[in-house]
Design brief:
Neuraminidase, four-stranded antiparallel β-sheet, mainly beta, single chain
Length: 228
């Protein structure tokens, strides 16, 4: 398949310190789709406060195809949602948002053990710093087992896909679960993506029937895996 450039946008009112992941959520009241951009990277563990930018997904026009990094189109002004952790400074590259509840999840990136899972309630504050709630730990069947670089929640809100540099891992919410957070107790299954360099992005297709993945390298292909 051959892709094409739709445009380049500057996110108005936002600052890129270390943007690592992006998620989308449709607002049930307005019907608009909003992008959630996670400024959550912290390789040196120097930052103690982090930001998620919420911005309306831009409507693509023909003129946007001519935009570039030097002359970008501009989005609406982003809402800045500040947060910190309840325990210590973390590095993270995975941001998830539940398509029905609107709750936000951050998974840390670790070389020395399992990743930690934190949650931000859907009724977060835009006026003050929000403190995340730790809801558990999560590891994948790999070495290291907590070096997570991206993820997504399926459109039906019942599955999660997580990736590291080489593979992807899926967990499924049991029918007996009392809440969505029970999903973190499940063991992940490996999704083979084939050879790729420094995999840092994975998502479900809009219909949830495929898993899409790509790498950080320039001109990286998009890998599609059909779900069984």
């Amino acid at each position: 398949k051959q892709g094409k450039k739709l445009g380049t946008w500057k996110v108005s009112g936002a600052k890129n310190n270390d943007w690592e992941d992006i998620a989308a959520l449709q607002d049930t009241k307005s019907g608009k789709c909003f992008l959630y951009i996670g400024d959550i990277g912290n390789n040196e563990r120097l930052k103690s406060e982090f930001t998620i930018y919420r911005v309306a997904e831009p409507q693509v026009a023909d003129k946007d195809a001519n935009s570039s990094t030097k002359n970008p189109s501009k989005t609406d002004t982003a809402e800045a949602v500040k947060f910190d952790y309840p325990d210590t400074r973390h590095d993270a590259e995975t941001l998830l948002i539940h398509p029905q509840s609107g709750e936000i999840y951050i998974l840390t990136k670790r070389l020395d053990g399992a990743a930690s899972v934190y949650k931000l309630a859907a009724n977060y504050s835009s006026e003050k710093t929000n403190t995340l709630k730790k809801i558990g730990d999560f590891s994948v069947p790999a070495v290291p087992n907590g070096f997570l670089t991206g993820g997504d929640i399926s459109p039906d809100g019942k599955r999660i896909i997580i990736c590291d540099y080489f593979s992807a891992y899926e967990i499924v919410l049991p029918e007996s679960a009392k809440s969505f957070d029970d999903i973190w107790k499940e063991k992940p299954s490996v999704v083979q993506l084939g050879e790729r360099e420094q995999g840092e992005a994975v998502s479900y297709s809009a219909d949830g029937k495929s898993i899409l993945a790509t790498s950080e390298k320039k001109n990286s292909p998009i890998i599609e895996v059909k779900r069984k």
